[in-house]
Amino acid sequence: MSKIIKFLFLLFGIGLLVAVTYQTDLTQLARHISAIGLFGVALILTVYILYFGADVLSWQITMVKIPVTFLWFGRLYVVRMIGEAYNNLTPTASLGGEPIKAWLLKSNWAIPLRDSASSLVIAKTASMFSLSLFGSVGVLFLFQSSAFAGEQKSIALGGLIFIVFSSVIFFMMQYFRFSSYLVGKISSNRFAGLLKKAFSTIEDIDKRFDVFYREHSLRFGFACLAAMANWLIGVVEVFVILYLIGYPLSLAEVFIIESLVQLVRTITFFVPAGLGTQEGAFFIVVGALTGVSSAGLAVALIRRFRELIWLAVSFLLAIFYSVRPRTISKLDFKEL
What we know:
The chain is an all-alpha fold.
């Protein structure tokens, strides 16, 4: 059943992409893309290396037992590349590659699964909090722009509220140990004995959340700052792409574009790699700001090309580290 759902989501994304492409002047689109050149591709990849690095740093900061050194940064960089490659190909709210990250850390550097699992959740929380702030600034700029209709502004505001609400709930579930509370309620069930190991694991990870947020709140703040740097470098990437194809926009306008695209991708997590939804967002937002819809699709396709290069390198690393499509099903989580 899950495979059917994944396939339907993929078809949905492809349908959106086809619809957007159908409304685009393909000759103009080709001219925009060809304007990038090899230098442009190299520059975009360089910016993305920094973009990804900020995300890795945010995760590294949440791992209390790992020193913040260049050696560990490099290790986590590779692990995150491999994990995110799987995240981009699975409709699981960017969680499909998380078990692989945990497995890589355990099998290569003996990092306990509970440590990596808790750090991944905390890093995701930092990312969501920073996205809420990032999106808020983008929507503020949006409301000051005359390029968008009132209905479009209302939709953007609704999406932002959803992200903020989700981020707060996600944090509160960890901070107030909601999972442990549920475990306590379920433990009276006659089948609870069969799940004793799972209950113990959940409670232990919840304790790690509690310790981190109460004793390492400064680390969480720095993790949020690094995650914010991640989003801001994304703005630089879009600015560079638009400049290279001949549509230099102000930083405020590019901020609107990137923030709305990221909000759309987060809300439509069920579509593998944001296929179609990302292109549609660029098509509408860049089209509104430049008056040329093909420029929006060009930005989306150039970013998609960059993603393909990154995925290719990531999967080569996955092969090097003996990660295969069935690795997840064979993971040994007895340590949990």
